[in-house]
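Record passed on underneath.
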Amino acid sequence: MFGRAAVVALGRLHEVRLMDGMALFLGLLLGSIGLGFVIYGRRQSKVVPFLCGLGLMGFPYLVDSTLWLVLIGTVLLCIPYFVRT
């Protein structure tokens, strides 16, 4: 089974889902862009880029599908462009 590993704990077989290479790369890329947004938002005292940056850094830990990483990442990247305060 590609992308999965079996872990035996206390006599039970547990299935653990592993990240594939593309999801790992996208998580690193989006997290790095998010860090840039956080630094920019903090220095310029802008809330929208700061919050989008936190979202970009945090959501790859919760999502393991490559498709959802791309969709959510694109939305979070576009919000500061369209919501200017």
Summary: The beta strands are 4-9, 12-17.
